[in-house]
Design goal:
Layout (H helix, E strand, L loop, with lengths): L3 E10 L9 E9 L3 E5 L6 H9 L6 E6 L2 E2 L5 H5 L2 E4 L11 H6 L14 H13 L15 H13 L5 E5 L7 H16 L3 E6 L2 H7 L2 E6 L2 E7 H4 L2 H8 L3 E6 L2 E6 L1
Parallel strand pairs: 3-8, 3-9, 6-7, 7-8
Antiparallel strand pairs: 1-2, 1-4, 4-5, 9-10, 11-12
């Protein structure tokens, strides 16, 4: 039996001051080496779920385990050596170069006031190469386009050398070329053994790379499982509350709004 790298059991969460749950009685398992898309419309609870997995939020009820150990028992440093986040957007207040910014991903491996060493630099340059950013190494992050910044966030996450990478709506602000580029990188990372979890409201992104789907609506899991079983016209129509048709074109599945 395959042991999950991450498991959530009967998770309920609500924000302070709210009577309504943001997530209700949610249970799921993430198998190591999988690519899982958390798919649903805006406001469904996708980002809340991601923040619970990161330990940034604590459930009102239920438990979360990472590698068979209670998530809350990990220090931030320990968790940062296992899980990395690529946020949807991040404010960058300082004029870092791309290399300087990417090196921030080595923080979980450095002591207070310790500067990055030779190994840290090697890891950072490798991450830049994976993200296709070598030519931008010494550019200031503030001078980059939105798509380039998103790839810088990914490179920073890769410098953590995590077992699991979380991406929050990674394609939301990307043009078609950069979406395709990101999908290729995700496939390459997964082929190298990384476990990937990403949120998205775009069925096309889930179809493109996900092996497993968690379909969520209004804080509840509608269904989850292998992509080819979950991404059906009926399931997507229920999740989005609007007619969606999944068809095959030239051997590829495509979601069409009708």
């Amino acid at each position: 039996m395959t042991t999950p790298i991450l498991s959530l059991e009967n998770i309920t969460f609500r924000y302070n001051g709210n009577r309504k749950d943001a997530l209700t009685n949610l249970s799921l398992e993430i198998i190591e080496g999988s690519v899982t898309a958390i798919l649903g419309s805006n406001g469904a609870g996708k980002s809340t779920l991601l923040h619970l997995i990161l330990g940034w939020l604590k459930p009102v009820e239920g438990k979360i385990e990472l590698q068979g150990r209670a998530l809350h028992s990990y220090s931030r440093r320990e968790a940062g050596q296992i899980i990395a986040l690529v946020p949807q957007i991040e404010h960058m207040p300082f004029d870092y170069t791309v290399l300087e910014y990417v090196l921030l991903g080595r923080t979980p491996f450095l002591n207070a006031l310790e500067t990055p060493g030779e190994k840290d630099m090697e890891v950072a340059f490798s991450a830049l190469k994976t993200a296709g950013l070598e030519e931008l190494t010494y550019r200031f992050v503030t001078s980059l386009s939105g798509g380039e910044r998103q790839l810088v966030l990914l490179a920073r996450a890769l410098t953590q050398q995590p077992k699991m990478i979380l991406l929050d709506e990674p394609t939301a602000h990307l043009d078609l070329a950069n979406k395709a580029r990101l999908m290729k990188i995700i496939r390459r990372l997964n082929a190298g053994g990384s476990t990937i979890i990403f949120t998205t409201h775009e069925p096309e992104a889930a179809i493109a790379v996900a092996s497993d789907i968690i379909l969520i609506r209004a804080g509840h899991i509608l269904t989850n499982g292998p992509s080819d079983q979950v991404l059906t016209s009926e399931n997507l129509t229920t999740a989005y509350g609007s007619p969606v048709r999944v068809v095959h074109i030239d051997g590829h599945r495509v979601a069409l709004w009708t």
